[in-house]
Design a protein that fits this description.
The protein has 389 residues and is an alpha/beta fold. The protein is built from eleven helices and 15 strands. The strands form four sheets. It has a four-stranded antiparallel β-sheet, with no helix packed on it. A four-stranded parallel β-sheet has the order 9-8-10-11, sandwiched between helices. The longest helix is centred in the middle third of the chain and has 25 residues.
Length: 389
């Protein structure tokens, strides 16, 4: 795929005397584009191409993000200037689909780094590629009309296929549990592309729980409710691959099948008298509770949490509270300077930015982090669960 030639720098909001924006015109050299010392949160650069070109892919070496969903460093890494030599390759499916078939002669680059004003930041290089094999010049009106008709035909055919695909899971409302990105995003995107509806938490409208492994809090919740399918991720992948709705029975967890079998056996044996359990006196009950508590690790010891109560239903809030307290965490009723972890399902917003500036040590994480800490019985690194700008 041919490399797009960068002709000249049209404007630049901030640059270092040595590592200036002009260095981006030659991506193979060792010099870089850095901001000046004590930069603002955002720096911009506009580059002119040698000729109008379609952009099909990008290679970029940066210390921040090119797209809202592409992150080079976490807030903690930005503050400590760690892990700052990363390269990202963005293919056509990462880019805005509206722009792919249009030709451009300029590129505006925006870099942001909100967590450390003392360190210059910018790009090591940027390479843009085009899928244009050749330029067609002086086309006649007849050729142009023929191309337009072909495009309309392709679009109509594609739309009909898409309409068919979106009906495969039209009656499915699903919840994901135990997955990390990028697999989590892939499963959600493929299921919704087939017409399914995604929910963060399980409720009476949900029909399918997609699990990475059994015995998560959501797994237990759905098993108790007994009103939904519990399947592994392969069910979504196979339905998407074969373009049809497949039976859930081949994708259920063994624990789910055992539970169904036990329920059937219990319904048959309802007439049998229940076994007598040995009763414990108060002293024995107290000792048993101590023994149980002693088996739990304290990896949340002296860690302060705040839960965004409006984001979850009562059952989920109760589960979150139990997990935090069980592992010796401290649950605050409001966000104080001691709070280091906020559990929420919201996207980054102005309130988060304001709180982060007043408390640089705070981390906004999603519910999956708490679940995975509980499942693995240890403190799991938070990087992949962070909610960031």
């Amino acid at each position: 795929m041919p490399l797009i030639h960068l002709k000249k720098i049209l404007s630049c909001s901030s640059e270092d005397q040595i590592h200036c924006a002009q260095n981006l015109l030659n991506p193979d050299q060792s010099n870089k584009w850095f901001s000046s010392k004590k930069p603002e949160e955002r720096i911009t650069c506009i580059i002119e191409f040698d000729k109008p070109s379609c952009i099909s892919s990008i290679d970029i070496d940066d210390w921040t993000m090119l797209l809202p969903s592409t992150l080079f460093m976490t807030p903690k890494e930005s503050r400590t200037n760690q892990n700052n030599q990363q390269i990202k390759s963005l293919k056509s499916f990462h880019l805005n689909k509206v722009t792919l078939n249009k030709k451009w002669n300029r590129l505006k680059i925006i870099c942001e780094q909100k967590f450390n004003r003392d360190i210059p930041f910018g790009l090591n290089f940027i390479k843009l590629y085009s899928n244009d094999d050749h330029q067609i010049e002086d086309e006649t009106d007849i050729e142009q009309k023929q191309i337009q008709l072909e495009r309309k035909s392709k679009i109509t055919s594609k739309d009909n296929q898409n309409d068919k695909n979106t009906q495969i899971m039209k009656n499915v409302v699903f919840v994901l549990s135990g997955f990390q990105n990028p697999l989590r995003s892939e499963l959600r995107n493929k299921a919704t592309a087939m017409g399914a509806i995604y929910n963060d938490d399980w409720n009476e409208k949900c029909t399918h729980l997609i699990l990475a492994f059994p015995n998560t809090p959501k797994f237990i919740q759905v098993q108790k409710a007994g009103n939904g399918f519990i399947v592994n991720q392969q069910w979504i992948l196979d339905c998407h691959k074969q373009d049809r709705f497949l039976s859930e029975s081949s994708y259920e967890f063994s624990e789910t099948r055992k539970r169904k079998k036990q329920d059937e056996e219990e319904s048959i044996e309802t007439k049998k008298p229940p076994m007598k359990k040995k009763s414990l006196n108060k002293k024995e009950e107290k000792e048993a509770k101590k023994l149980k508590l002693g088996e739990l690790p304290d990896f949340f010891h002296e860690k302060h949490f705040y839960v965004s109560y409006g984001d979850y239903n009562d059952n989920t809030l109760l589960d979150i509270t139990r997990v935090i307290l069980a592992y010796d965490g401290i649950l605050e009723r409001q966000i104080t300077n001691d709070v280091t972890y906020v559990i929420t399902n919201r996207m980054w917003n102005h309130d988060f930015e304001k709180i982060s500036k007043s408390n640089p040590e705070i981390n906004f994480v999603n519910l999956d982090w708490i679940q995975d800490c509980h499942n693995e019985n240890q403190f799991v690194p938070i990087q992949t669960y962070l909610i960031v700008p």
